[in-house]
Amino acid sequence: MTLNILFSARPTFWKQYEAPLPRALAEAGIDAQVFQPGDVAAEDVDYIVFAPNGPVEDFAPFTRAKAALSLWAGVEQIVGNDTLAMPLARMVDTSLTEGMVEWVTGQVLRHHLGIDRHIVNPEHEWKFVIPPLARDRVVTVLGTGALGTACAEALVALNFRVRGWSRSEKQIAGVESFSGDAGLMAALEGAEIVVLLLPDTPATENVMGARAFAAMAEGGCVINPGRGPLIDDAALVAALDSGQLAHATLDVFREEPLPEGHPFWAHPKVTVTAHTASETRPWSASQSVAENIRRAEAGEPLIGLVDRGAGY
Ligand code: NAP
Questions:
Q1: What is the per-residue pLDDT across 199-258, written as a single tens digit (0 to 9) for each?
Q2: Is it true that the peptide bond before 257 is cis, omega within 30 degrees of 0?
Q3: Helix/strand/coil for 202
Q4: Residues spanned by the domain of 48
Q5: Which of 204, 218, 214 is nearest to 235 (CA)?
Q6: Partners of 248 in the β-ladder
Q7: Measured from the CB, is residue 8 less than 6 Å from ligand 1?
Q8: Does ligand 1 lie within 6 Å of residue 30's CB atom?
Q9: Is-catalytic flag, 112?
Q10: Taking the model in full, what pTM does it have?
Q11: Which secondary-structure segment (H or E) carries 161?
């Protein structure tokens, strides 16, 4: 039977997925047709591939659909949608992970090596500052899921002293792992660089507040490619101003694009990037979607199945 797949995202997305998605489905041996909203009756749809801000917000009419497959890893905009009764999977994808590993290791090395000292040197000062070796630098990754684990492993490969924190207990080679609320402060204690790769849920909001910043080593850095609400913005500015933190590199914000006039734009110790840490590439995301449809049809568990109660 030919499966009907609805692609619900902004029109610019369709242009990017129009060719790779049908190709990936065919390569996975799936007999399917991909439709845009309006081109197929809701009750005839078998799977919904979607991104936030697409046309479909009410999932109730899709009575036959077996799963909703998000093109994004973060599902905070959809997880509370009461009309969505079918299983929901977030994006877990090779290219997304590769991109995040490259971005995170780049940002960690920037702060570890003090690269800014040499790039911004208007006085032409001869600065003979030797950074510690990575083996002597504690880096904590909050959120050791698909992305955080890959980043932690890459940092271990660079010889950093890596700690990880997750909701459930984890064992990752070379990583000192902490879990649950009780493990948070131990994971942060004395950390010089903290990377945030947690999802945005009620339980993770403001996880990095005054207490968390105070637990870090003085002069530490925070790198946030996770989600804006993970950070208490006012507490971050206070920690930067007091010198407790040396720098924050922020890719995600409570409001995006970051509004003109927001203190982060002008703060000398903040680097703002435009939610570009890692992007889902259509060729590989299409393969991930196809694999999940193959799994669903075979009765196998979906990759990235969202726990609606936990919110991610
Ligand atoms: P994931 O696999 O679901 O991993 C989430 C991690 O956070 C897991 O280790 C989870 O613990 C942990 N966690 C969740 N709630 C927690 C809590 N209350 N206490 C402690 N740990 C908690 O997600 P992912 O694919 O790695 O993605 C992580 C996030 O990155 C996404 O949600 C998204 O917001 C962000 N992201 C950003 C970009 C960007 O370009 N900036 C791109 C992609 C994704 P368990 O392992 O125990 O479940």
A1: 999 999 999 999 999 999 999 999 999 999 999 999 999 999 999 999 999 999 999 999
A2: yes
A3: coil
A4: 3-93+280-298
A5: 214
A6: 222, 270
A7: no
A8: no
A9: no
A10: 0.97
A11: strand 161-166
